[in-house]
Specification:
The chain has one domain. The protein is an all-beta fold. Helix content is 0%, strand content 50%. The radius of gyration is 14 Å and the shape is globular. The strands form two sheets. Strands 2, 3, 5, 6, 7, 8 and 9 form a seven-stranded antiparallel sheet that branches. Strands 4-1-10 form a three-stranded mixed sheet, with no helix packed on it. The protein contains no helices and ten strands.
Amino acid sequence: MLSVLSCGQARAEFTVCNQTLDVVNLAVGQKVDNADQTDGWWTIGANQCVNVIREELTNRYIYIYATDVFGHAILTGATEMCIERRRFSIRGIDECWQRGHIAAQFLEVDTLEQVRWTFFLTGSNP
């Protein structure tokens, strides 16, 4: 059994592991202080893992959006949230275009109310 965490690392509570052969850029959405918030970007190399949320999870649902190095979506879902081309932290998910942001379709990840979760990004994700 392969363990993602080692004793020397800070304990991650939401980790994304890229099991594809390509580098991906990741954005994450979640509720923060009762408001929807999106943050990005994390760059994850092939067969690498990145800790994107470092505290214990308090939200059952975490939302993720991933692109290839050319900015093309490789992981999408049905929940529209806001992103930017460069590093960002955006409060609110409504009226992305009107507020000067880009609308993107995030994938909903059900963490089953666990305090720690690892999502494995594979070539067969939706």
